[in-house]
Specification:
Blueprint lengths: L3 E9 L5 E10 L4 E5 L6 H9 L6 E6 L2 E2 L10 E4 L11 H11 L4 H15 L14 H13 L5 E5 L7 H18 L2 E6 L2 H7 L2 E6 L2 E6 L1 H6 L4 H6 L6 E9 L4 E5 L5 E3 L6 H4 L6 E6 L4 E2 L9 E3 L3 E2 L2 E4 L3 E8 L2 E8 L9 E2 L2 E3 L4 E4 L8
Parallel strand pairs: 3-8, 3-9, 6-7, 7-8
Antiparallel strand pairs: 1-2, 1-4, 4-5, 9-10, 11-12, 11-14, 12-13, 14-23, 15-22, 16-22, 17-21, 18-19, 19-20
Helix pairs in contact: 2-3, 2-4, 3-4
């Protein structure tokens, strides 16, 4: 059993504002939870507070129901993997992995058994005699993870462990981390600024902004039902497209009209109709994902809004798909099209928006309208 609970956790440095404001989350036993957000949002600080490397200003940190705010890091039964590996350069891989166990005065037999098992899981048995300078970044990261595994802790903490790896190696290592989580059946908390890592690794994701939790949910819920404008714009590649406007019409007819009037949408038959009625004549924000824009309508045309003829600013050919960029009322939009789509730079095109997949946000509070 390894459940981590944060109750109204806050952090402030002397003479400064709170960098962590009021965070309450629960991490269930054997769950993989990812803390994600832009630089400076407080995710690494929060992780270090769990590890005991930062003091908690307010709130309670519980591990299996026990309050551990005042426990020293070595007494928390938590292992942390750092971004910069933190390996001892003068030691070989075996000694790096065994060092913490030797400090606990474990027998040579038990140490060798644990190191060998961890090396087998991570497929680094042939590297045990090497020193860090003789290994690649990916191999060093495996050693750092192995050093955490041999401790057999209750909780694993990862602080952006893949940020120093190239794109291909990051993808491979993500798969290995998923496999490792299944094999160890351990509780893991992982920090990253990369929302792709968050979406592919996390059972649940904590989206942070300026020390506040914006949303805590499963990857699909974050993607399909963002709670606010920030989550909608942060989760997803490319980011969601937004256009400002207001809800128009009467009790019988309802629609959306953008601020400059270039986008007009009839919502009378939309699934959004009922929830948007209270917002008539009020400012809202329409969000539409790139993959929900097409060159031609698909299925029931009444669910689609034809955007007036646009000029393509840029085109990115990605092989199986094309990203087409254009401007809507001064804001850059992007459409994700199939690889055989006939769009070219500078050419006019009309896009159809799947309004059934659109999101609406209150312009004042930036909260989702549901």
């Amino acid at each position: 059993m390894a459940e981590v609970v944060l109750r109204h956790i806050a952090k402030a440095y002397a003479g400064g504002p709170r960098v962590i404001k009021d965070v309450s989350i629960d991490v269930q036993d054997r769950e993989f939870v990812v803390l994600v957000g832009p630089s400076g949002c407080g995710k690494s600080t929060l992780l270090r507070m769990i590890a005991g490397l930062e003091e908690i200003t307010d709130g309670d940190l519980l591990l299996d129901g026990q309050r551990i705010n005042d426990l020293a890091p070595k007494d928390r039964d938590i292992a942390m993997v750092f971004q910069n590996y933190a390996l001892y350069p003068h030691m070989n891989v075996y000694d790096n992995m065994a060092f913490g166990l030797k400090l606990r005065n474990m027998s040579d037999y038990d140490i060798r058994e644990r190191v060998t098992r961890a090396a087998k899981i991570l497929e680094i048995e042939n590297l045990l005699d090497r020193k860090p300078k003789d290994m690649s970044g990916g191999q060093r990261q495996r050693v750092a993870i192995g050093r955490a595994i041999v401790r057999n802790p209750k909780v694993f903490l990862f602080d952006e462990p893949l940020s120093n790896l190239d794109a291909k190696l990051r993808g491979q290592t993500r798969i290995e981390l998923q496999k490792l989580h299944r094999e160890l059946k351990a509780t893991m908390i992982y920090v990253t600024h990369d929302q792709v890592e968050a979406m592919t690794l996390g059972d649940r994701i904590v989206v942070l902004r300026n020390g506040d939790v914006m949303q805590y949910d499963t990857p699909l819920e974050l993607y399909n039902h963002p709670a606010n404008l920030f989550v909608a714009g942060f989760i997803g590649t490319p980011p969601m497209n937004f256009v400002w406007g207001q809800i128009t019409g009467t009790d019988k007819t309802i629609g959306f009209e953008s601020t400059r009037g270039s986008v007009r949408i009839d919502l009378s038959t939309s699934t959004h109709r009922d929830v948007l009625k209270p917002y008539q004549n009020r400012e809202v924000i329409l969000g539409i994902r790139a993959e929900h824009m097409r060159e031609r309508p698909i299925g029931a045309q009444r669910l689609y809004c034809a955007q007036p003829t646009l000029s393509i600013d840029a085109v990115e050919h990605m092989g199986s798909e094309i990203l087409a960029y254009f401007m809507v009322e001064g804001r850059r939009f992007v459409a994700k099209l199939t690889g055989d789509a006939s769009v070219r730079f500078g050419e006019p095109v009309t896009f159809f928006w799947d309004i059934g997949k659109a999101h609406f946000f209150d312009a004042q509070t930036e909260q989702a309208i549901r």
